[in-house]
């Protein structure tokens, strides 16, 4: 009887996979018309990663910048950049190390993609901080592995859980060793999921002196982004995995076709692609979109998307769900273990900036995160800010970074002159 049940279960699973496969084929072949946003992606001219982030962005602006390679415990080769001081600073006058961790479909370039006067990376360097830039596996800057190629399925077998447990550990350990100092952590979006999960690990949190989280995410069950909600409802993550699509690259023809199919005007108008994904942004400079598309979006893994969709569906902040059998094999229990925010030490100073128009880091979910922490973080709430405003707003210098740097300096006992 048990064998029959297993056989029936396997047959049902196979049938479900075939159905999903057929649905995705119909979905992609549905003749969805290109939106202005996907046309922009089709005609974008992405910059090659040759030469690295330093050569492409920072050195031409007159900032000292060096490239470093860090290997994770599971073999990924990550590129991180070091900006020792500002354009007019001196090398032996570096302040405390600050580590910047980007969000989903972004890379380290996101901290420098606006002007010198508007980008947080430049502003921190010009104000005496010793700036380090993280780039997670799979981004344009971190495509290496000790044994795998980006064309291998296993290269993309990871989610943000691995970014927190492997990538952050490797990058922060390197900066901690080189600087011989505890690190000021700054993360945005996925960089905050990684941070909050990592800070439950004593091995990682001992290297951090304080953390500033822009659009903090640990729970996603109140997400309101129309584009994301449609993708979740269609089980896009399962469709892609069933088709054997393990890398999400929206510069590829397949990636653009997926966007076109989701942006069926009858169900979802993506003429304003960014707002359909992140919510309205008050101060995003849309005139620079062609320039932004030279660097972003960066690739990520389908497994990462699926992990995020699991969080949306279940309302949990937990490890990746492999199903009962897979969970038993990996975790020794039927359900994936949660990340307990109460495990983050009360002694770790936290600062959080979040916005009232953010459709990803919803205010209700941010408040749930705050309630589960043992300490009370310092908070900056901006009612008309969306998800991207905190890193790309033309007003963020005054609206956000003044308070963020005050917090970072206060943890080091430094006077804020910004």
From TrEMBL:
GO terms for biological process: lipid catabolic process. It holds the Pfam family Abhydro_lipase. Residues 56-114 form the Partial AB-hydrolase lipase domain. PANTHER family: LYSOSOMAL ACID LIPASE-RELATED (PTHR11005). The keyword Signal applies. It comes from Panicum virgatum. Residues 1-34 form the signal peptide. The active site is at residues 189, 358, 387. GO terms for molecular function: hydrolase activity, acting on ester bonds. The keyword Signal applies. Keywords: Glycoprotein, Hydrolase, Lipid degradation, Lipid metabolism, Signal. Gene3D superfamilies: alpha/beta hydrolase. Belongs to the AB hydrolase superfamily. Lipase family. This is Lipase.
């Amino acid at each position: 009887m048990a064998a029959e049940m297993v056989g029936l279960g396997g047959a049902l699973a196979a049938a479900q996979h075939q159905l999903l496969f057929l649905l995705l084929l119909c979905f992609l072949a549905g003749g969805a018309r290109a939106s202005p946003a996907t046309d922009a992606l089709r005609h974008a001219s992405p910059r090659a990663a040759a030469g690295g982030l330093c050569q492409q962005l920072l050195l031409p602006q007159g900032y000292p910048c060096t490239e470093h390679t860090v290997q994770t415990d599971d073999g990924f080769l990550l590129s991180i950049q070091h900006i020792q001081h500002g354009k007019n600073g001196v090398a032996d006058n570096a302040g405390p190390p600050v580590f910047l961790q980007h969000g989903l479909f972004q890379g380290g370039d996101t901290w420098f993609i606006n002007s010198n006067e508007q980008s947080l990376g430049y502003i921190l360097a010009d104000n005496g901080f010793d700036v380090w830039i993280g780039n997670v596996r799979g981004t344009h800057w971190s495509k290496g592995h000790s044994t795998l190629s980006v064309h291998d399925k296993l290269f993309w077998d990871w989610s943000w859980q691995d970014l927190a447990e492997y990538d952050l550990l490797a990058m922060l350990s390197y900066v901690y060793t080189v600087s011989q100092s505890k690190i000021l952590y700054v993360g945005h979006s996925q960089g905050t999921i990684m941070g909050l999960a990592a800070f439950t690990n004593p091995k990682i949190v001992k290297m951090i002196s304080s953390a500033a989280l822009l659009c903090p995410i640990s729970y996603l069950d109140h997400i309101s982004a129309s584009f994301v909600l449609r993708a979740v409802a269609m089980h896009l993550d399962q469709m892609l995995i069933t088709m054997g699509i393990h890398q999400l690259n929206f510069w590829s023809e397949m990636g653009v076709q997926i966007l076109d199919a989701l942006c069926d005007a009858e169900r979802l108008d993506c003429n304003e692609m960014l707002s359909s994904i992140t919510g309205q942004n008050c101060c995003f400079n849309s005139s620079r979109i062609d320039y932004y598309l030279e660097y972003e979006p960066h690739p990520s893994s389908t497994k990462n998307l699926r992990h995020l969709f699991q969080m949306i569906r279940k309302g949990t902040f937990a490890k990746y769900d492999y199903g009962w059998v897979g969970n038993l094999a990996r975790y020794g229990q039927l359900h994936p273990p949660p990340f307990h925010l109460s495990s983050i030490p009360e002694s770790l100073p936290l600062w959080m900036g979040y916005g009232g128009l953010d459709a990803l880091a919803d205010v209700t979910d941010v408040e749930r995160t705050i309630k589960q922490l043992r300490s009370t973080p310092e908070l900056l709430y901006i009612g008309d800010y969306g998800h991207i405003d905190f890193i790309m707003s033309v007003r963020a210098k005054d609206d956000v970074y003044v308070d963020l740097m005050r917090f970072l300096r206060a943890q080091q006992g430094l006077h804020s002159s910004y």
